[in-house]
Amino acid sequence: MKAVLRMQKIKSVGDYKRSSAHSSRRTKPENANPKGFHVALKEPQKPIESILPEKRRKDAVIAIEMVLSASPDYFKAGIDTIKWTSRTKSFLEKEFGENLHEVYFHDDEQTPHIHAFIIPKLKDGRLCAKEFTNRKQLVKWQDDYAKALEGTGIQRGLRGSKAKHTEVTKYYGVIAKALDNGISLEELDGMIEEKIENNRLRV
Ligand SMILES: [Mn+2]
């Protein structure tokens, strides 16, 4: 299983808002399947403008958009999609804490993926994208992310190697319902783990 982590710098509030509107599906992108699944894993708590320091360089990087995914094969089993989503979200929360502004899961384009918007703010309130976007840091994140997924005990092939996409979409119903009922993805992941152990998973 190959972990994928890419990032892009955002330099203006306008660009940020456009990107956020696309990812949240407030505006419907043409390339997305309207019947596909997408869900907000973290909604923004405040408007972006109120988080950014008033004094900043004109060309300052105000946000980083990160796209996280895995090899397409990986997503053929629905259970693993929930696990992947939950582990990815935990990785982002651990790594970026309060700098993690909004997070969305998409399966209405090609391979399922997550968009995360991160504000590169230091503890003293200054923006410092350099500490977030240098090559060394990116490689470290990619390593850390792969590690975060490795430790999950996800076993491909055990189940779902022959799973059809329709089976995966059933799990999206479970994710949406759980989030609506205030169940976190981590809890859901734990519940699934337990059910698998007791060999009585029904979706
Ligand atoms: Mn997308």
Describe this entry's structure for a reader.
With 203 residues, the chain is α+β, with helices and mostly antiparallel strands. The protein has a single domain, classed as BirA Bifunctional Protein, domain 2. The chain is built from seven helices and five strands; from the N terminus they run E-H-E-H-E-H-E-E-H-H-H-H. Strands 1-3-5-4-2 form a five-stranded antiparallel sheet, sandwiched between helices. The chain starts with a strand and ends in a 6-residue tail after the last helix. 31% of the residues are buried. About 5% of the residues have low confidence. Bound molecules: manganese (II) ion.
Keywords:
single chain; 203 residues; alpha+beta; BirA Bifunctional Protein, domain 2; five-stranded antiparallel sheet; 7 helices; globular; binds manganese (II) ion
Largest sheet: 5 strands, antiparallel
Q: Within the CATH hierarchy, at the fold level, what is the topology? A: BirA Bifunctional Protein, domain 2
How many domains comprise the coordinates? Answer: 1
- Ligand set: manganese (II) ion
SSE topology:
Layout: E1 3-10, H1 13-24, E2 37-42, H2 48-51, E3 63-70, H3 78-96, E4 100-107, E5 113-118, H4 130-133, H5 135-150, H6 165-180, H7 185-197
Antiparallel strand pairs: 1-3, 2-4, 3-5, 4-5
Helix pairs in contact: 3-5, 3-6, 3-7
Manganese (II) ion (MN) binds next to strand 5.
